[in-house]
Amino acid sequence: MYLVRLIYVSQLSEQFRPGDVEHILQSARSKNSALHVTGALFFNPAFFLQCLEGSREAVNQTYQQILKDPRHNHILQLQYQEIARRDFSEWSMGYVPDSARLAPVIKAYSRSDMLDPYTMSGESCYQLLLALKGLMA
Ligand SMILES: Cc1cc2nc3c(=O)[nH]c(=O)nc-3n(C[C@H](O)[C@H](O)[C@H](O)COP(=O)(O)O)c2cc1C
User: Fold this and answer.
1) How, if at all, do strands 47-55 and 72-82 pair?
2) What Pfam families does the record tag this protein with (predicted)?
3) 12 lies in which domain range?
4) What is the CATH number for 94?
C-alpha cells in the first residue's frame, strides 16, 4: 500500500453558509475514519487549507468527493506525494479555526499578516499545518 499526502487550498463559495464547517467536519470525520484517512483542515473567512493523508486509493477517492462540493471553489492542489508516515495520525480531520492566537504562527510562514496559501509554496503550507498541529481540535 502506498501512503500519500495531498494538500489543497480552496475559496469559500457563495453557497457556503455559517455552520457548514461543523457539517463538513462531521461528515469528513465519519467518512475519513472508515477509509483510514487522516489530516487537518484550516479555515478562515476566505479559504480552506486541507491536508489529507492515507492510502493512495482512499486519498484520491476523498479528494474527488471534495472537488465536487459546491461549498467551495477555485480548488488548487498544492502538494501530492508519497510519504513514509502520517503526520496527523491522531486526527480523522483535525480542525484549526482562525483566531488571533494563530497570528505569530501565520506570520512565520506567510509573507504578510494575512495568510494567503495561493501565494505560498506547497511545502510552506505543509509546514504551516504542522506548526498548527499543537492548536488542533
Ligand atoms: C473544505 C471541505 C473539506 C472537506 N473534507 C472532507 C474530508 O476530509 N472527507 C470527506 O469525506 N468529506 C469532506 N468534505 C465533504 C465532501 O465534499 C462531501 O460533502 C462529503 O464527502 C459527502 O458526504 P455525504 O455523502 O455523507 O453527504 C469536505 C468538504 C469541504 C467543502
Assistant:
1) unpaired
2) BLUF
3) 3-135
4) 3.30.70.100
